[in-house]
Design goal:
There is one protein chain. Strand 17 and strand 18 form a beta hairpin. Helices cover 29% and strands 30% of the residues. Strands 11, 13, 14, 15, 17 and 18 form a six-stranded mixed beta sheet that branches. A five-stranded mixed β-barrel has the order 3-4-5-7-6. It has helices spanning 2-27, 48-62, 75-84, 90-123, 180-185, 244-257, 280-283; strands at residues 40-41, 72-73, 140-158, 164-170, 190-194, 210-220, 225-234, 237-238, 287-288, 291-297, 299-300, 305-311, 317-324, 327-328, 337-338, 344-350, 358-366, 369-377. 30% of the residues are buried. By secondary structure, it is α+β, with helices and mostly antiparallel strands.
Length: 378
């Protein structure tokens, strides 16, 4: 009986165990190949720890951190991670660039407006022909046809050619206009010349006065310094327009005042200017063979123009040398020249304002002939 009871109990126990196993099996979720979290794939055989690790990795990946090698992520997940760390989207950047472009466009418009305004202002102070009223423009190389400068007046003098000559100690922003000759011969000052045509319309500033000057900046080839020549506005006052008659009169005044041989009132066979400005030795023709001095203006003051005209064979080359105490003059106005079809050659040059007074030999050679004369500086 006891054996029967034990047998029944064993059967009941086994049945109970079987029922529990079936219940447990039914309560477990069906097999799955994926744990869906940001497309992260996990094997169904992964342990609970692996699943936890994968979940953490997926969580970290969505936060933009690097993905652990313990989890397998697909390309889309990696791309999402890259996008999370990429910063502002391109569309916003394009919009920002457009705004910047718009701002640049506005700035460009402002700059264009300012440039136009400056051009207009410049045209209001410039003369249509910078050299109107200036005689012997071959003396100069043009640097700037219209420039305004400012500085303090150091020297004022009225020269023989009737120009007002001023030495200006430039304000610092204009010192780049000075050449080596300005430092060597003009104490670092810029020369400003006011010609007869403009003098009635400006007020000549006095020594020590700060002033502005508008005119053409030129290289004076005879001296190697730069100057404003002519200056038609002084402190913004002056006259831009002119007549041909006024310009012509200014040129003649300069030429004749300087005593140049091409003064219209002079005869071709005598020196120009007043009779007491030249010596007989200057005007008397001398000759050697085919080379003859026709006329000359060689009794001068420092700062004035000297000239000499010779006749030789047509189309031959002539040279001239003027020897001062410092040696031969290097003025470009004394370069060799070729005689015209009638055999004439004329040299005109400006004597340096600091040239030592005295008698200086002048030697001219053409067609293998030589004549000599003297420059008298008072």
């Amino acid at each position: 009986m006891a054996a029967l009871i034990y047998s029944v109990a064993a059967i009941v126990f086994l049945f109970a165990i079987g029922a529990t196993g079936a219940s447990t099996e039914n309560t477990n979720p069906p097999p799955s190949n994926k744990v869906s979290k940001n497309n992260t794939t996990v094997s169904s055989n992964s342990t609970a720890n692996e699943i936890a690790t994968t979940t953490n990795v997926v969580s970290n990946t969505s936060a933009g951190n690097s993905v652990s090698n313990n989890a397998t992520t697909n390309t889309d997940s990696n791309q999402a991670s890259v996008n999370n760390t990429a910063g502002p989207v391109p569309t916003n950047n394009t919009s920002s660039s457009s705004g910047s472009t718009s701002s640049t466009s506005k700035n460009s418009t402002k700059k264009t407006t300012n440039t136009s305004s400056n051009t207009s202002n410049t045209s209001n102070v410039c003369r249509s022909n910078w050299s109107a009223g200036v005689y012997h423009t071959y003396r100069f190389n043009l640097i700037n046809p219209c420039k305004t400068v400012s500085g303090t007046v150091e020297i004022v003098r009225h020269e023989a050619d009737h120009d007002y000559h001023l030495d200006i100690k430039l304000d610092s922003q204009y010192k780049n206009l000075l050449a080596s000759g300005n430092y060597k011969y003009q104490h670092g000052y810029l020369v400003v010349e006011i010609i007869p045509m403009d003098q009635p319309y400006v007020t000549i500033p006095h020594v020590g006065q700060h002033a502005t000057f508008t005119g053409a900046v030129v290289d004076d080839k005879d001296h190697g310094w730069n100057e404003v020549h002519p200056a038609w506005l002084v402190n913004g006052k002056g006259k831009l327009s002119y007549t041909k008659a006024a310009a012509r009169k200014s040129v003649v005044t300069g030429i004749c005042g300087n005593g140049d041989s091409d003064c219209p009132t002079s005869s071709s066979s005598s020196s120009s200017g007043s009779s007491n400005t030249t010596s007989k030795s200057n005007t008397t023709s001398s000759s050697t063979g085919n080379l003859t001095i026709v006329s000359s203006s060689l009794t001068r003051n420092p700062g004035q123009y000297a000239s000499i005209k010779v006749k030789t064979k047509p189309n031959v080359q002539g040279t001239i040398e003027v020897d001062y105490s410092s040696g031969p003059s290097h003025s470009s106005s004394l370069n060799p020249k070729t005689a015209d079809p009638n055999g004439y050659i004329t040299w005109t040059w400006k004597v340096g304002s600091r040239t030592t007074p005295g008698n200086w030999p002048v030697t001219i050679t053409a067609d293998r002939q030589t004549v000599k004369t003297t420059l008298h500086l008072k």
